[in-house]
């Protein structure tokens, strides 16, 4: 066997195990058709890990992730009411996701916003706006800003309770994600939208100064600066103007979910979280407790995260393209999970059946 990869599999909470069950089938199909082996190791992670192991990110999972060639993570977290049963620092977001990102310094978060021409009817936007589809790469800084700044709660000198969260970036953190964004823009349509708030935040002024410096290494890339609030509107009114977008952590969290709305469902949002030595791959969305256990979640985001892993961690671009093509074929045939607004001939399928169809198309593509 020429290549053997170890993949840590963190199925997560609520719909996590349902969509993960479909995603891991991709590895089996590829093993059957290519000279490669994948060792998949299931790990406890998230709220379910807190209940079974007392920690949202247990030591056993840390050890396996440290050894793995890549990490595949399902969504974690509970509904607002359920999460209150867990101490605040052990809730899945603060106790598992952020420590995972920090541990591997996964500073560059790739969130593709993609709709093929066969998928445009999923978008709630008018046909004249969505036109023949979308192909945007949103790059979100993932390990800095408000998420990781110092936090404080207390009572001030006037006796009022207060809270303080700090937005902090150093120049290295900003430069490294901007370089990734310029590199991507350079390989695509050579147009980078820088999303910022420099009219108010000095963190954005600093960010933009570093951007000018990095830009000098990429003179062929055109930069358009857009304030984050205006960017939210532009994404709805004219999303086709965007190719690569780059932004800090919190802006990226919000705009990427808005992008999911423009596509028609968060279930169409896979992602890659890239660090200097390790990468992990996860849907952009949460654990969707409202639809858990019903076998109706859309596994596209989870399967797409496997495709991103194949390309970005294992250099298997052709196989990754086949996975995307297999999913497109399911839509072309008129099938979709119920989260997607469908055309009148659409046939709704379950999570499992969507997975069956992807597996059968992928098998045919790989056998060619
Ligand atoms: P959510 O993303 O889980 O759900 C928002 C809406 O999108 C819901 O109506 C849900 O049914 C739908 N949706 C999301 N993914 C879908 C899919 N694959 N198929 C069909 N429909 C889908 O957001 P939320 O409800 O605000 O959060 C639920 C929990 O998830 C919270 O605990 C939150 O902190 C957590 N969360 C985790 C991650 C992560 O693991 N990376 C990301 C975001 C939110
Ligand atoms: C995301 C999620 C996470 C974030 C939460 C759950 C920590 O919303 O990946 O977009 O805010 O980054
Ligand atoms: Mn989010």
Protein described:
The protein is of the alpha/beta class. The chain has 2 domains: 228 residues, Isopropylmalate Dehydrogenase; 118 residues, Rossmann fold (3-Layer(aba) Sandwich), CATH 3.40.50. It is 42% helix and 19% strand. The chain has 14 helices and 14 strands. Strands 2-1-3-12-11-4-5-10-8-9 form a 10-stranded mixed β-sheet, with helices on both faces. A two-stranded antiparallel sheet has the order 6-7. β6 and β7 form a beta hairpin. α10 runs parallel beside α11 and α13 crosses α14. The protein is globular. The two termini are 21 Å apart. The mean pLDDT is 97. The site of nicotinamide-adenine-dinucleotide (NAD) has 23 residues, from α6.
Identify the CATH homologous superfamily of the largest domain: Isopropylmalate Dehydrogenase
CA-based shape: globular
Termini gap? 21 Å
What does the average pLDDT come to? 97
What characterizes the major β-sheet?
Answer: 10 strands, mixed
Ligand roster:
nicotinamide-adenine-dinucleotide, 3-isopropylmalic acid, manganese (II) ion
As laid out across the biggest beta sheet, the strand order is 2-1-3-12-11-4-5-10-8-9
Please state the CA-atom Rg, rounded to the nearest Å: 21 Å
What is the N-to-C succession of helices and strands? EHHEHHEHHEHEEEHEHEHEHEEHHEEH
Output the number of helix runs.
Answer: 14
Structural class: alpha/beta
């Amino acid at each position: 066997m020429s290549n053997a990869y170890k993949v840590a599999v963190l199925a997560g909470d609520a719909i996590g195990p349902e969509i993960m069950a479909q995603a891991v089938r991709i590895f089996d199909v590829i093993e059957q058709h290519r000279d490669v082996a994948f060792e998949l190791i299931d790990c406890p992670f998230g709220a379910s890990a807190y209940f079974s192991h007392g920690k949202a990110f247990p030591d056993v999972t840390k050890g396996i992730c440290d050894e793995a060639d890549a990490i595949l993570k399902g969504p974690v977290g509970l509904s607002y009411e359920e999460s209150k049963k867990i101490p605040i620092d052990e809730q899945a977001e603060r106790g598992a996701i952020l420590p995972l990102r920090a541990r591997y310094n996964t500073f560059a978060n790739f969130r593709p916003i993609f709709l093929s021409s066969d998928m445009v009817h999923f978008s709630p936007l008018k046909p004249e706006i969505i036109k023949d589809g979308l192909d945007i790469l949103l790059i979100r800084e993932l390990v800095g800003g408000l998420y990781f700044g110092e936090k404080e709660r207390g009572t001030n000198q006037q006796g009022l309770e207060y809270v303080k969260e700090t937005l902090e970036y150093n120049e290295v953190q900003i430069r490294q994600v901007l370089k990734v964004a310029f590199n991507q823009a350079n390989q695509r349509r050579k147009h980078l939208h820088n999303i910022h708030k420099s009219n108010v935040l000095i963190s954005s002024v600093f960010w933009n100064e570093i951007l000018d410096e990095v830009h000098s290494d990429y003179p062929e890339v055109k930069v358009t600066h857009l304030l984050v609030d205006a960017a939210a509107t532009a994404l709805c009114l004219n999303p086709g103007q965007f190719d690569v977008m780059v932004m800090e952590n919190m802006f990226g969290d919000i705009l990427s979910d808005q992008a999911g709305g423009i596509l028609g469902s968060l279930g169409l949002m896979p992602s890659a979280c890239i660090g200097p030595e390790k990468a992990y791959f996860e849907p952009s969305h949460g654990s969707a407790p409202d639809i858990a256990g019903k076998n109706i979640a859309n596994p596209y985001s989870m399967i797409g995260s496997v495709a991103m892993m194949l390309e970005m961690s294992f250099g298997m671009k052709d196989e990754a393209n086949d996975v995307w093509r297999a999913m497109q074929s399911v839509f072309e045939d008129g099938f979709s999970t119920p989260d997607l607004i469908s055309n009148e001939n659409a046939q709704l399928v379950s999570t499992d059946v969507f997975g069956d169809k992807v597996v059968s198309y992928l098998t045919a593509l790989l056998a060619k």
